[in-house]
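Field log, afternoon session.

UNIT: design team B
ACTIVITY: writing a sequence onto a fixed backbone
BACKBONE:
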C-alpha cells in the first residue's frame, strides 16, 4: 500500500508540473553568462528562458514539446556585430566574382551571363586583384568592347572600389574633369580607367534604376534564411537608410521578417535628423539607436587613410571619406542626442582621428558604448586611446584574407598594429566579432576559427598569423554572444542562456569549445531557435 501511494504521488507530481512550451535536455550548454556556467537542460515558455539547469528540470515541468539533444552542444543565438544584411540579399542575385583568379576569368563570366540573360544592366560583386597573378587594378577597355551599350558595374570584394564601363560613366555623368571629395576617380595618362574608389561610386549607383520594394523584400528573406542556416539570430546591419529601416520595421511587425536586427543609420543628414527628432526605435526584433560613419576606405583598394604613404604606393596615403572636422562635429551632435556612434576606421590615421574625437566628447558620458568598426591598422602608440567607453568591432576573417598582402601595403612596422584583436580586448575590456558579409562569407564559424587560430580555411599559416593576437575560445564566443548584446545595449534581453532572456539558441553538431582547432571550420548548425521557435533545422 505504501509503495502504491508513492507511485501515485510521483505520477501526480509529474502531471502537476508547471506547463511550459519547451524542454531541451541531455545537452552540453554553454550559457555565456557572467560566470560562463555550463548546463544540460533549459526550459522555454512564451519565448523566453524560464529555467536553466540539469536533469532535475525534467521532473519540474510539463512541457508541450521535448527535445533530447543527445549530447549535442548548445550556445546562445549568435550575433553578427557587423554585416550588410540587406546588401547581402540584393547582391546574392548579382554575378558572383569571388575567388576569380584573373580579369580574363571575369570577362568570360560576363560574356556568358550577358549572352544568356540579355540584361539592361550587368552587376557583379567580389573581385579581388590581390588574388590574381597580375595584381594591378583592371581597366574598362575590354568592358567597353564587349558591352558598349549596357552599363557594367563590378564591385570589388570590400565594397570600396568599383570597375565600370564607359556606358556606366556616361549615364552617371562622370568624365575626366569630375572631382568628388572622399574618394578617387582613377585615370591613366589623363584617361579614365573605369576604376572608382569610395565616394564617386555613389554617382554610378544613383544613376541606376532604384531597387523596388518587392526586390528589397525578396532580398531580406534571402538574407534571413541564410542567417538562420548559420545560427545567426541577431545581425547588426552597418548602414541602412531611413526608408529601409522603416521597411524592415513594417515587415517585422507584419510577421514576415523574424530575424532580430540592430540597424545602424547611414550617415545621411536627413535620415539621422529624422531619428534624432523622433527618438530610438526599440522592439523585440528591431533596435535603432546608432549611426554608421565611414572615416576612410579599405586597405585592399588603398583607400584606407594612413599617417604615411603606402609601402607599395609611395605617393598615396589613402583618403578620409568623412573629413576629420566632420567626424568631430558628428561626435558632438550624436553625443548630445545620446545616439551611439559607430565609425568605420581602417587606416592608422583614420583610427587615431576617430579615437581623438570619441575621447573628447565621451569624457563626461557614463556608458556610451561607442564603437570603432574594423579597428584594423593602429599605431602601437595609439592603442592606449581605447578604453571601456570605446568598443572595437572586428571581423577576424579580414585578418586571414588580408594576411597575404597586408604587410606589402603597410610595411613590417605598421603591420604589428594590424588586426590586433587581443591587444584591443586588453585595452577595451570587451571586443565584438562579425563577418562583414557579403565582404566575407556569412559563416560565423569561420569567424570563430579565424579569431582563435588566426588561419585561413586551408589551415595557413601553420602557426597562425600574428598568433599573439589570437583570442581564446571563451573570448571569441563571448564576442559573438554576450558582448555583442552589450555593444547593442541589449545585454538584459539576449546574448546568453539565462532566465528571463529571449530564448534564442543554436544546436551544433560538435563542441566548438573542445574539438581540435582545425575542425572548427567544419561545424554545422543542427537547429536555430528564435524565441523558442525552430527557424532552421536539418534534423528536428
Amino acid at each position: 500500500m505504501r509503495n502504491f501511494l508513492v507511485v501515485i504521488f510521483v505520477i501526480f507530481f509529474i502531471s502537476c508540473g508547471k506547463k511550459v512550451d519547451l524542454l531541451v535536455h541531455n545537452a552540453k550548454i554553454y550559457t555565456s553568462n557572467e560566470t560562463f556556467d555550463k548546463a544540460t537542460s533549459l526550459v522555454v515558455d512564451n519565448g523566453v528562458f524560464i529555467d536553466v539547469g540539469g536533469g532535475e528540470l525534467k521532473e519540474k515541468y510539463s512541457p508541450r514539446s521535448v527535445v533530447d539533444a543527445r549530447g549535442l552542444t548548445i550556445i546562445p543565438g549568435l550575433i553578427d556585430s557587423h554585416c550588410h544584411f540587406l546588401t547581402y540579399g540584393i547582391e546574392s542575385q548579382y554575378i558572383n566574382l569571388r575567388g576569380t583568379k584573373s580579369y580574363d576569368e571575369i570577362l568570360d563570366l560576363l560574356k556568358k551571363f550577358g549572352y544568356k540573360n540579355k540584361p539592361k544592366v550587368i552587376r557583379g560583386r567580389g573581385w579581388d586583384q590581390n588574388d590574381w597573378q597580375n595584381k594591378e587594378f583592371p581597366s574598362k577597355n575590354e568592358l567597353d568592347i564587349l558591352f558598349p551599350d549596357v552599363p557594367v558595374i563590378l564591385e570589388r570584394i570590400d565594397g570600396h572600389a568599383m570597375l565600370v564601363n564607359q556606358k556606366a560613366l556616361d549615364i552617371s555623368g562622370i568624365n575626366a574633369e569630375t572631382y568628388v571629395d572622399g574618394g578617387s576617380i582613377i585615370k591613366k595618362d589623363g584617361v579614365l580607367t573605369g576604376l572608382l574608389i569610395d565616394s564617386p561610386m555613389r554617382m554610378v549607383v544613383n544613376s541606376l534604376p532604384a531597387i523596388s520594394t518587392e526586390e528589397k523584400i525578396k532580398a531580406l528573406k534571402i538574407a534571413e534564411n541564410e542567417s538562420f542556416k548559420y545560427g545567426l539570430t541577431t545581425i547588426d546591419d552597418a548602414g541602412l537608410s531611413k526608408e529601409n529601416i522603416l521597411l524592415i520595421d513594417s515587415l517585422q511587425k507584419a510577421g514576415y521578417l523574424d530575424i532580430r536586427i540592430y540597424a545602424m543609420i547611414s550617415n545621411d543628414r536627413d535620415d539621422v535628423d529624422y531619428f534624432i527628432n523622433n527618438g530610438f526605435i526599440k522592439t523585440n526584433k528591431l533596435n535603432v539607436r546608432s549611426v554608421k560613419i565611414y572615416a576612410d576606405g579599405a586597405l585592399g583598394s588603398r583607400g584606407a587613410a594612413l599617417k604615411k604613404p603606402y609601402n607599395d604606393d609611395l605617393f598615396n596615403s589613402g583618403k578620409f571619406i568623412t573629413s576629420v572636422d566632420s567626424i568631430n562635429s558628428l561626435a558632438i551632435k550624436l553625443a548630445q542626442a545620446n545616439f551611439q556612434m559607430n565609425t568605420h576606421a581602417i587606416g592608422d590615421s583614420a583610427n587615431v582621428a576617430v579615437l581623438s574625437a570619441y575621447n573628447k566628447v565621451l569624457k563626461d558620458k557614463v556608458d556610451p558604448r561607442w564603437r570603432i568598426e574594423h579597428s584594423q591598422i593602429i599605431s602601437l602608440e595609439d592603442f592606449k586611446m581605447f578604453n571601456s567607453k570605446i568598443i572595437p568591432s572586428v571581423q577576424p576573417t579580414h585578418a586571414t584574407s588580408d594576411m597575404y598582402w597586408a604587410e606589402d601595403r603597410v610595411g613590417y612596422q605598421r603591420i604589428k598594429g594590424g588586426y590586433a584583436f587581443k591587444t584591443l580586448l586588453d585595452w577595451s575590456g570587451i571586443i565584438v566579432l562579425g563577418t562583414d558579409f557579403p565582404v566575407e562569407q556569412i559563416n560565423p564559424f569561420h569567424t570563430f576559427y579565424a579569431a582563435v587560430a588566426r588561419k585561413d580555411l586551408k589551415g595557413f599559416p601553420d602557426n597562425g598569423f600574428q598568433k599573439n593576437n589570437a583570442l581564446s575560445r571563451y573570448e571569441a564566443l563571448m564576442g559573438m554572444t554576450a558582448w555583442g548584446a552589450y555593444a547593442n545595449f541589449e545585454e538584459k534581453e539576449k546574448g546568453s542562456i539565462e532566465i528571463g532572456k529571449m530564448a534564442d539558441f543554436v544546436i551544433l553538431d560538435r563542441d566548438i569549445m573542445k574539438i581540435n582547432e582545425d575542425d572548427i571550420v567544419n561545424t554545422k548548425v543542427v537547429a536555430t531557435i528564435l524565441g523558442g521557435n525552430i527557424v532552421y533545422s536539418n534534423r528536428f
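LOG NOTE: The longest helix spans residues 213-229.
NEXT ACTIVITY: expression trials, pending approval
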